[in-house]
Every structure is written in C-alpha cells, then in structure tokens.
Amino acid sequence: MVEDKKLNYEVNDILFDYKLFDTLKAINIHKSQRKAANSLNIAHTVLNRRILQAEELLDKKLVLVSNKGSVLTDYALDILSDYELYEERLKDDDVVTISGGFVSCEFLRQLAMAYHIDVRILQTDMQSAIKLTNQGMVDILSFDDPVRAYMMNLEPVPLARDNLLLLSDKKEKFNDIHDLDGLNFVEVDGSAHRLAWNTLVDYDLDFDIVNVVNSFHEAIKLVEQEDSLYTFVNKSMSYRCQYTYDVISKQTQHIISALNVKNDTSIDKFLNYASHRAQKLTEKYGFEHI
Questions:
Q1: What is the pLDDT of residues 206-261, one digit of tens each?
Q2: 99 within 8 A of 121, measured Cβ to Cβ
Q3: How many other C-beta atoms can be found within 10 angstroms of the C-beta atom of residue 134?
Q4: In this structure, what is the dihedral angle of CA atoms 87, 89, 91, 94, given to the nearest 10 degrees?
Q5: Which of 43, 48, 136, 191 is the most exposed, having the fewest neighbouring CB atoms within 10 Å of its CB?
Q6: For the structural domain made of 9-91, what CATH number should be given?
Q7: According to DSSP H, which parts of 96-215 are helical?
Q8: Beta pairing, strands 243-245 & 63-66
Q9: Which fold has domain 96-161+256-284?
Q10: What does each C-alpha distance from 87 to 3, 8, 73, 113 come to in angstroms?
Q11: Within 13 A of 168's CA, how many CA atoms are on the CB side?
C-alpha cells in the first residue's frame, strides 16, 4: 500500500488543503483547540487562523467555542465524514493514478514499468485532468506544457526536455521556418503548441489555427484526412508519424513535468528516480534528460 497519502478536498467548489481536515480531526478528538494544535505540532494561532479562513470562505461555522472547550458543528462533522470516506478509499487503492498531458503521461507509464510500480492512466484532456485532481482522484498530475503549472502557482518536478516537430501527411521539403508561411494548423489543447505559435509570430509569418482538438490522436487524424492541414508533434512521439520535419525544434524546446498531488512520500521517491536516475530511459524514449 502507498503510505502517507494526503488528500486535498473540494467543498462547495472550494479546494481545501488536507491540513484543514487534519485540524478538524484533531479538534474532534481533543475537544480543545490548544490541545489540537499541540497534537499537530503547530501554534494555536496557526490553527485558529486556519479555521477562521475556512469559515469565511464557506460562510459557515465549523467550530463552536465555550467554557467547556471546542466542538465541531454538524456542518463540519458532515464534511469531515465525507473527507474520511475519501481517505479510506485511498488506503484501499495500491495503484498510483496519473492524469494530465498525453506525452508526460505516456513517459510516466514507461518509467513506472521500470520502477516496478502499478499505475493507472486516466487519459483525458488537461481541463478534465485538473478537475479530477481537485476531486481527489489523481495521485500524479503531469504537464506537457510548463506554463500550465505556473499559471496554477504549482511547482512540479521536471522530468525531461522535449521539442516539437512539424507533421505533414506527405513527404515535403521544408528548408527553414519561412517555408511555414501561409500554412493551416491543428492545435492540441493543453500541449506545448503555444511555443510553435509564438515562434511563428516572432518570425512574422502568416498562419491560421483552423481547429483545436483535445488529443494528438485527433490532430494526426485530421492531418491525415486533409493534405492542406499541418500540426506539431513532440519529438518523443514522432516515431509514430511518417512525415515529420525538424524546422523549429530549437525554438520549441520545453520541459515536461509532474506534480505529487497528495504529498505521498513514495511518489516523491518515484519522481526523484524519474527526474535524476532514469537518464538512459529518458534518451531511449526520445527525450533529453534535464
């Protein structure tokens, strides 16, 4: 069983850190905020502020204070009960669940096989992966584009470097970036395609994004069906494609990364292995190591 899982949990569309629920548990056990704080090795003022901030966000009382001590309200007991049900489910599940970007998920799948841990890949679009993460369904959230993580104020573990290659449905000749002028493209949402568009803009090229899809599979299929369409694929997955062109790979180098969502110590060890000790595997699957 995976140890030390900590679950963030959403209440009324507000995502709360697991520390709030540890606090509610401690108050429920000790019937005293001061004793609860001592049991959590935090200052009483920290615990009190944690409760007050949650009450303000929820517009609900969580703790009632009297001369006899502190007790949880019925509302607090209800959300704590729901949280504990999630915790029990996690304890019963030995499989690490991964969701996020297609490229990073597939890389983590290969690394997990080498590391000998069981993983479950929830293959979906990035927005759905984030929603599943907020619902406590995901252990590792992976990013094909580092900007997505930064926009969420997250600091994922860097795994490897990748870059983008142009994909066509036929053999063509592209000598330099200016040969991309006037082309129509398919974008994959949540991918690193923004780097390609920024590069084309920097070179003052005329281009159109005529379709936005949720997966590389959809993008490749559209390009295969229409010879006037192009897209970009990650170099690490280019072995699946017949006609790729190294036109802007230097300008589109980027880092794929992964976040240990539940502060799980065993996942920390796995991601450390993935980031630092799996260099041969990194190169085998078409990436460059950090």
A1: 999 999 998 888 899 999 999 899 999 999 887 667 799 999 999 999 999 999 99
A2: yes
A3: 17
A4: -140
A5: 43
A6: 1.10.10.10
A7: 102-115, 126-134, 146-151, 193-202
A8: unpaired
A9: D-Maltodextrin-Binding Protein; domain 2 (3.40.190)
A10: 12, 10, 21, 26
A11: 15
CATH 1.10.10.10 domain locations along the chain: 9-91
Q: Which comes out higher in pLDDT, residue 281 or 177?
A: 177
E-state strands within 126-220: 140-143, 157-162, 164-168, 184-188, 208-213
Which residues are 162's β-sheet partners?
254
Given 3.40.50.150, 3.40.190.10, 3.40.50.970, 1.10.3720.10, which CATH number is that of 164-245? 3.40.190.10
What Rg do the C-alpha atoms of the chain give, in angstroms? 24
By residue count, the chain amounts to 290
- What single letter denotes the amino acid at residue 61? K
CATH 3.40.190.10 domain locations along the chain:
96-161+256-284, 164-245
The pLDDT score that the predictor gives to residue 188 is 92
Distance separating alpha carbons of residues 107 and 94, to the nearest angstrom: 20
**How many C-beta atoms surround the C-beta of residue 111 within 10 A?**
23
pLDDT per residue over 162-205, tens digit each? 999 999 999 999 989 999 999 999 999 889 999 999 999 999 99
What are the structure tokens assigned to 144, written together? Answer: 């094909």
Given its phi and psi angles, is residue 263 left (phi above 0), alpha (psi -120 to 50 degrees) or beta?
A: left
For 83-115, what is each residue's pLDDT tens digit?
887 676 655 567 899 999 889 999 999 999 999
pLDDT of residue 284 exceeding 90, the answer is no
